[in-house]
Amino acid sequence: MAIQTRNKRSIEFSMASMSDLVFLLLIFFMLTSTLVAPNAIKLLLPASSSKTMAKQTVTVYINETYNYFVEENKVNESDLGPRIQALIKGQTEATIVLRADKTVPVQYVVNVIDAVNEINNSTHNKHKVILATSPK
Fold it and tell me: How far apart are CA 35 and CA 47, in angstroms?
């Protein structure tokens, strides 16, 4: 006497639910990536038609209240040089991107350039400062 089962198991796998899951994840990541702000410190950058792009090593911010930030950490003017030097240690041609609010006087920008020039003179390197701007 042979016993037969009434419920037959299917060995097929449906990929329809997997593709739905992939599309939902894709939509989720597309929406969340547009909400992420690239700059944590909000600045009103000066406008320029220049399209110069460089690989940035360190970012220095000067906000509208004339406070200095090195990689989003607030620093005093006297600590600006040592903090930048610690971040570019071991590099010979680093690029320091300066993001200064357009209401900041030129003297504050020159202070950052002087700090990088002092690092260059003491270490005999060729670090450069690039001023970040917004497109016209």
Answer: 24
In a domain, 1, yes or no: no
Q: What is the CATH number of the domain that holds 123?
A: 3.30.420.270
What are the phi and psi torsion angles at 105 (to 5°)? Answer: -65, 155
Is residue 64 predicted with pLDDT exceeding 70? yes
> Distance between CA atoms of 96 and 62, rounded to whole angstroms?
13
Tens digits of per-residue pLDDT, 92-132?
A: 888 888 988 888 998 999 999 999 999 889 988 888 888 88
Residues 6+ apart with CB under 8 A from 123: 85
Closest CA to 93 of 124, 127, 117, 55: 127
Whose tokens are 């497109």? That residue is 135
Q: Which domain, by its residues, includes 119?
A: 47-135
Reported pTM: 0.62
